[in-house]
Amino acid sequence: MKTKVVLTLCVVFILGVASANAQTTLIAGSPQDKAYTAAMAEQDLDKKITLLLDFEKQFPDSKALPDIYLALMESYSKKSETDKANDVGEKTIKADPENFSAFLTVSRNYAIAKKKLDVAVPYAQRAVDILEKRKAEPRYTEDAAWKQYIDATLNSAKANLNFVKSVK
Hints:
Layout: H1 2-21, H2 31-41, H3 45-58, H4 65-78, H5 82-95, H6 100-113, H7 117-134, H8 138-142, H9 144-167
């Protein structure tokens, strides 16, 4: 149980950090930026989900879609709508195959539900692999906060991998 709580908290942290990064891809004051900002700021989960889904429909080619999907996945998770969260997680993975947050969340959800374990283990491993690769980037050695973030997230990903493997 403790592992599940720690993993959940780590995933929520990851989702929060990832969401903050999307605004750098949007032009300030543009309709896309306004829709993104409104959706991310919304506190009511039902309204947030509606705004996030509207963003996806209005801006189907947006570079911010992976972050929109992460927020949508988190919102569905908070509402205990795990199947919807997983569906959105799969969309995130298709839109951004380097999105370790989606791999972590979906693999954990599948393991907790004890379904799709043939997918959960490779997804958990993929998250670890992506994070290991990030350690080779220049930013890892140049930015102490980024290094700390990657190291902590990698530790969470490894714990998740061990958890997912233990479910089999």
